[in-house]
Specification:
The chain is α/β, with parallel strands linked by helices. The chain contains 20 helices and 14 strands. Helix 4 runs parallel beside helix 6. The longest helix is centred in the last third of the chain and has 28 residues. It is elongated. The chain starts with 6 loop residues before the first helix and ends in a 5-residue tail after the last helix.
Length: 464
């Protein structure tokens, strides 16, 4: 698979590592399999040094780095070092022309040599460094703590910090040569992780890829969530348990607390950490304050994680017995419903901050609540899949998402307009009603605004 996206990240790395500028200290982090190492190696030149650290004791790690550096500086191979600081200082003394040293998976080095951040702090603060230094890591927790925590030695020292995120939806269509509907379905399983796309490319269909990559202990992604949690969480058991109960339908804090048999107050910090890692999200009804709202619900945000905890974790006993086909039948039966919730989320993402239908929109979200019923004195529960206010405050987008066979658009449109009339915050605003549909509707109504998968994909392209 060809290298996709990362245009801004590549340009920033080339800018900051320019040999005509003073040496820089650069930090790169992001979850595993996002292509951080590939990105770095595409920017480095043959004169630079790239070292991939391992989970090794400090003496072995230092020896391996010394051997690698001695290919560029033979004098280093003839020197014995008592510690990391001496190695970096001798390397600095031998440097006559600026180059870049990249220490990938730097958290492994710190794990066995906790003094390393303090050593780098002293070297950086001396202002005498002659080479660019890049540190990179998949442990977002460790990297963020080292760089963003005021109590840590490297706080405030970085000249550039790149937080590598998943690749946007439109690139998946290009990478795997998919139709718009196939793109939504595939993204609902793999998300924006390029390594998953690369692995998926080896199979003839999504169904084959799911069986080959996820169904069974010998598959490559069978224990992927556990690996991600070991990278980023001190208490992986609690994190996995939270993901499992959320996937199982416990979405409110009270429900999660009851399922976990833990006090709700003890779960706030681990839930916040999962949000920070982008594994889950907290949804609140449109118009409410994230800090003050008591009606927040938790959803799994990462598509692959959602697929895993929805279908794989609950079927581990069957998969351990080799019953892939039975589990695949269960996935087939529930797949459309599963994709539907990701379709809703993608529609909200497509609206957020975008210019659509003649307006630019603020952050889109769901709305649910009670509105007056036709019968006086009574109320009815109602929800909208997509709701957003225009940036000028003059319009309100109200949308319904469907991931099913062709719908009767006029009937859906009539219902959404009726419901929108009762919204408490819709007064004095132009109501823009939108249908987000998988297929062309059965009826052709020209005055109904409809967005299809191809529209959503196009509107989410970074170049738009």
């Amino acid at each position: 698979m060809k290298f996709l996206d990362r245009v801004e990240e590549t340009a920033e790395l080339k800018r900051v590592l320019n040999p005509e500028k003073p040496p820089k200290f650069v930090v790169i982090y992001g979850r595993r399999r996002l292509g951080k190492s590939t990105l770095i190696k595409r920017v480095l030149t043959p004169d630079d040094v790239y070292y991939m650290a391992g989970d090794l004791v400090d003496a072995v790690q230092m020896e391996m780095l010394q051997d690698l550096l001695s290919l560029k500086f033979p004098e280093l191979g003839m020197t014995g070092f008592t510690g990391w600081e001496e190695l970096f200082l001798v390397l600095n003394r031998l440097t006559t022309e600026q180059f870049t040293l990249c220490l990938d998976e730097f958290p492994y080095m710190v794990k066995h040599s906790p003094e390393l951040p303090s050593i780098l702090q002293r070297i950086l603060d001396s202002k005498k460094l002659k080479y660019n230094l890049v540190i990179c890591g998949s442990s977002q927790r460790m990297m963020q703590e080292m760089i963003l925590s005021k109590s840590e030695p490297l706080y405030g020292r970085a000249d550039a910090i790149l937080d590598i995120r998943p690749i946007p939806l439109p690139y998946l269509k290009e990478a795997l040569h998919l139709s718009p509907i196939e793109t939504i379905e595939e993204f609902s399983v793999w998300g924006g992780v390029p390594r998953y796309w690369e692995l998926r490319e080896e199979y003839n269909s999504l169904r084959e890829a799911i069986k080959g990559m996820l169904l069974g202990p010998t598959t490559v992604l069978y224990d992927e969530p556990r690996k991600l949690f070991l990278d980023n969480m001190k208490a992986s058991v609690q994190s996995e348990s939270l993901m499992a109960v959320i996937a199982g339908g416990a979405n409110r804090l009270s429900e999660i607390s009851a399922r976990m048999r833990r006090e709700a107050t003890s779960l706030s910090a681990p839930l916040d950490k999962l949000i920070q890692m982008s594994y889950i999200r907290r949804e609140i009804p449109f118009g409410e304050s994230p800090k003050k709202s008591k009606r927040g619900i938790y959803r799994i945000n990462d598509p692959m994680m959602d697929f895993y905890y929805t279908f794989i974790l609950t079927n581990m006993s069957s998969l351990a017995r080799g019953r892939k086909n039975i589990v695949m039948e269960e996935i087939d039966d529930a797949f459309s419903e599963y994709v539907a919730r990701h379709w809703e989320n993608l529609c909200r993402e497509a609206v957020s901050g975008n210019k659509l239908l003649g307006f630019r929109w603020k952050e889109a979200s769901r709305w649910w609540g009670s509105i007056p019923a036709k019968e006086k004195g009574k109320f009815q529960e109602m929800e909208f899949d997509v709701m957003a206010e225009s940036t000028d405050g003059k319009a309100l987008l109200v949308g319904e998402c469907k991931w099913t066979n062709p719908e009767i658009a006029s009937e859906l449109h009539r219902k959404i307009k009726e419901k929108a009339m009762y919204l408490p915050f819709a007064h004095d605003k132009e109501i823009i009603t939108v249908l987000f549909l998988k297929h062309r509707p059965k009826d052709e109504e020209t005055d109904i605004r409809i967005l299809f998968p191809e529209d959503i994909i196009d509107s989410m392209h970074p170049d738009q």
